C-alpha cells in the first residue's frame, strides 16, 4: 500500500474529509501468562508499554485490543479498566495486541488546521512574489503532497516517498470532489463530506494510482 | 451537451430539448409559486448563485485554467472556455468600458430559450436570470465580486441577448494562502 492517507481541508482550515488507506504493519498480537513481563503505564488516553521491549513490541506501543476486542482509551470493550484487568491473575492467559496508536479524529482535525496555517508560511517565506504555499513535505517514511485549488480547498495526500503520479492523483481527487461531493445537492459546501459515492470513487482512484505509479521516477 | 472526452469516462450526451424543457418547467413553476416577476427574478438569481459556487470547482477541475490576473483574461475564459464547456456556445465580448472594468457578452443564441415566447403578463420576467446568478456565484468563489445583468434579451424583442458584467472589487477576506 503506497498511498497512506488523503485529507481534504476547507477554506477555513477545517478538515472535511479524511481517509486512511494503509494497513499498519507494526501491530503485534501475543498471548501472555501471568505475570506480564512488560511494564504498562497509562499515558494520555491510552495504556502504553513503558519498558520491556521484545518480539516486535516496542516501547511506546499502545494496547490496542485484549482477547480480540478493541480497547477504547484505558478501558476494555466491556468497560473494565485495562490495568486492573491485567493485574488480575484470573484473567490469564490473555492475548493482547500492541501497536502504534492511530490518530484519533480530534487529533487529525488539529493537525489539519495546523497544516493549513503552515501552508501559508510557504508563500510568506518565499523570496519571490506570488509563490504557492507548501506543496510537498518529505520525511524518511512518507511524502506529503498538497494541492490548493483556486477556491482555497486543499487536497493533501500522504504517500510512500517512491510513489509517483501523485500530482495527477491530486487532480483526479479534485475531479472526484467536484463530481460526487459538489454535485450532490444535499452536500453543503465547507461541511464534512459524508457521501458514499465520493468514498467509493476515491478508493478506486487510489488503487489505480498505486498500481500505475510505483515504478516511475519520484514525482 | 456532452461531457468532455478528456475525463476518461464515457461521454454522456443529454438531449438539449430535455434541458430546455426542464428549465422551462422550473421557471413556470416559480411563476406560479411567486406570482410576481421581481420575486421570480430574485429566486432565479439565487438558484443560479448556488449552482455557480459548485460549478466553478467542476470547471477548474476539468479545464485546468490558472488564476486570471485581470478582468480581460476573465472575460476571455468565461466566453471561450466556460460557455463553450457548459452551453456549447461562444458569446462574443464587446463594449469594454474605458476603465476596463465592464464588458458585454453577446449571445447569438441562448440554449435556455429555444422555443420560448414570453407572454405579455410576464414582461418584466428575466427568463434566463439563472445565468446571471451562476456567473456571480462562480466568480465569487475565485475572489471576484461582480455584478451581472441582462441588458438585451431576444425574448423581449431585441436582436441579440446581451449580458453586461461589471467588476466591483476583489474579495480580500478568506484569500487562499499565496494569493495576496
Give a topology summary:
The complex is a heterodimer of chains A (219) and B (180).
Chain A: E1 3-9, E2 15-20, E3 28-32, E4 39-43, E5 46-51, E6 62-66, E7 69-70, H1 82-87, E8 94-99, H2 105-125, E9 136-138, E10 143-148, E11 154-159, H3 166-181, H4 196-213
Antiparallel strand pairs in A: 1-2, 1-11, 3-8, 4-5, 6-7, 6-8, 9-10, 10-11
Chain B: H1 16-34, H2 37-63, H3 71-87, E1 92-94, E2 102-107, H4 129-141, E3 144-152, E4 161-170
Antiparallel strand pairs in B: 1-2, 2-4, 3-4
Helix pairs in contact in B: 1-2, 2-4
Show unreliable segments of chain B. 1-10
Distance between the termini of chain A: 17 Å
Task: Spell the H/E element sequence of chain A.
Answer: EEEEEEEHEHEEEHH
Number of helices of chain B: 4
The chain-level structural class of chain B is alpha+beta
Low-confidence stretches of chain A: 215-219
Tally of contiguous helical segments of chain A: 4
| CATH homologous superfamily title of chain B | Trafficking protein particle complex subunit 3
Strand order of the largest sheet of chain B: 1-2-4-3
Instruction: Give the biggest sheet of chain B.
Output: 4 strands, antiparallel
Helix content of chain A: 25-40%
CATH topology of chain B: Muramoyl-pentapeptide Carboxypeptidase, domain 2
